[in-house]
Specification:
This protein is mostly helical. Strands 1-2-3 form a 3-stranded antiparallel sheet, with no helix packed on it. The protein is globular.
């Protein structure tokens, strides 16, 4: 419940928050299925790991949804931008978490065995739902962007524009002949092409 409330507040959109919370719930269901396959029972150790799973799983989904809500264009364009902006960070987070708990895989302690198996499920299912399932859902039924229709050219970087299939265009300013203004509103000084008087 606490994660749902914080997600709704930070995403600032009820439907986007519901999608993220549902995605986290699906990750937990997958982990419970994995626990059944591995014969892990519900006890104090597994419950603590399941609580930790909520915090880790929401991390994988919330970043993608947040980037999607702040991108512009069609749903597909916004999803491409969101994955380009946050996809690698989410993947690195999942891989680094898995590598961190990998040292417990050979332990003979029941606590560490359960810890490793559940965290394996958290990382695996979290990244599957965060980078595969959630992007498909958002590209199909995702909510509208938070940005205004004309804010793309003012606040977007060249990388975001390139990801959406657009290229930044430079135009020569009419007020200063030696300055150029790009689509982001930045003015740069053009090189001086005056070669001076001819030498006799």
């Amino acid at each position: 419940v606490a994660v749902a409330i914080i997600t709704l507040l930070l995403l600032a959109h009820v439907f986007a928050g519901v999608i993220v919370v549902a995605n986290v719930a699906m990750v937990l269901i997958d982990i419970l299925g994995l626990m059944w396959l591995w014969g892990i029972t519900i006890n104090s150790v597994s419950i603590i790991n399941l609580v930790l799973a909520i915090g880790l799983a929401v991390d994988y989904s919330a970043h993608i949804a947040h980037a999607f809500m702040h991108a512009t264009g069609t749903r597909d364009d916004r999803m491409v931008n969101a994955l380009g902006e946050m996809g690698s960070d989410v993947a690195h987070g999942a891989v680094s978490t898995f590598v961190a708990v990998l040292v417990t895989s050979g332990s003979k302690s029941y606590i560490f065995q359960v810890f490793f198996r559940q965290f394996f499920g958290i990382c695996f299912f979290g990244i599957i739902h965060g980078l595969l399932v959630l992007p498909v859902i958002l590209s199909l039924i995702g909510p509208a962007t938070h940005r205004l229709p004309g804010s793309h050219s003012e606040g977007s970087s060249d990388v975001e524009m390139a990801a959406s299939g657009k290229t930044p265009v430079q135009t020569v300013s009419s007020q200063a002949p030696n300055s150029m203004t790009d689509t982001n509103g930045f003015t740069t000084q053009a090189p001086n092409m005056d070669v001076g008087p001819p030498v006799v």
